[in-house]
Design goal:
7-stranded mixed β-sheet, single chain, mainly beta, globular, 3% helix, 127 residues, 1 helix, 4-stranded antiparallel β-sheet
């Protein structure tokens, strides 16, 4: 599985961005997908995840109500719509694939659950 993330950029605080992550492979709809981020000098942290069917989503408390994860299985793509961006959202954002499509936020929020990772896309929010 290869993942290609895109959509990052520079935006002012309060603005919006939509990240995309396109996956290779014919079994995309069976994978859980997640978004993580890593700010300079900090550990990688969970942002959001979605199960293969798209019916169940999970969010970190810091982004709930501002970010929305979705997927289009026909296009092998997962999205992260980010609204009301804050300076503290500045980070490199990574998409990742969970082949077993684990259930529950405790599992979905652990980077070790994901077997495949994209290259990351930089989001910079200016205050």
């Amino acid at each position: 599985v290869q993942l290609q993330a895109s959509g990052g950029g520079l935006v002012q605080a309060g603005g919006s961005l939509r990240l995309s992550c396109e996956a290779s492979g014919r079994t995309f709809s069976s994978y859980g997908m997640g978004w993580f981020r890593q700010a300079p000098g900090k550990e990688r942290e969970f942002v959001a995840a979605i199960r293969g069917s798209g019916g169940i989503t999970y969010y970190a408390a810091s982004v709930k109500g501002r970010f929305t994860i979705s997927r289009d299985n026909a296009k092998n793509t997962v999205y992260l719509q980010m609204n009301s961006l804050k300076a503290e959202d500045t980070a490199v954002y990574f998409c990742a694939a969970d082949v077993e499509d684990s259930f529950g936020i405790a599992a979905k929020s652990r980077p070790s659950r994901y077997e495949y990772w994209g290259q990351g896309t930089l989001v910079t929010v200016s205050s």
